[in-house]
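so my prof wants the structure for this chain in the tokens format not the other one, which i didnt know existed until like an hour ago. anyway here's the sequence
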Amino acid sequence: MQMSKPLVMPSNKTGFELFQSMAAIGLEELTSEMSSLMPMDELMGKTAEQIAFEGIASAIIQGRNKEGATSSAARTIAAVKSMAIAMNSGRKERVSTGIWNVSEDPLTVDEILAFSMQKIENMAVDGLKIQADIADDNAPFDVSPLNAKTTNLLASAVPIEDWIKANTTTKTSALDSEAITLSMVIQLRDPMRQYEAVGAPMIALIHATAVDEKAESYDERRYKVTSLQVGGIKVRTSAGPKHIWDGEKQKLTALQWLVAYGIGKQAKKGKRLISKGPDLLWSFSSRVMADMWLRPIRNPDVKFTK
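here's what i got, hopefully its the right format
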């Protein structure tokens, strides 16, 4: 699974409410904004070693261009290592039992992503089924976006390193918040096919709330993850077949991968039925309760009105 660099948004809204807010700016503006703010490199044809080396080199170079270069680069590399460990920690037990136990320890901002990665990957596979039109569950109903005048929080999001810097240099940072959401674009890839992209890009939103600093003494603010949303775009307009977020190629690779790994069934031969109606933003939600990830549920689809 490939991910963009995560952004931090100070927000008390849930992930689904954020999706409604995002949809208010319109399909083309939203997808353009996500591609611009959270870009991803092309990995097709690269080896795992190349990808790892380029990622570490990029972190070091970017760190040199900023104040506190050594600590910034070191923290980035440490975060990458923690994510690599997190992707394997407890995986076998979760696969065999279906129980998603998690640690109860509060997290720093840059630990939130590692905490959520396995669940993001799991929900992204469910997202492939929607992209391939073989989803197990349909959306319960459609809803409209939030008021178009609502502030677009994605546009005000900042990189994690900027968030950390702002909140460690001053106790009264404008970026400080009792609740935050990490947002990132994700792309599933097949390492058996030279990291070919599988399906279309999706967006993940991780919502976390701050723990009581008076009750615990920490060197920096800590949070507990409360929910995770993974969503994507369903394009029903004439631009659909060519749209990077829901094109025919993306649908085909999603279906082929699901069938190859026994997760989905091949559709019957014949012409694909094109659903009519507005473009949609679909999503799944999962919550953390009693130190356990709950089963993801399908959210209502959000209609794009422009």
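also thought this was worth mentioning. The longest helix spans residues 69-88.
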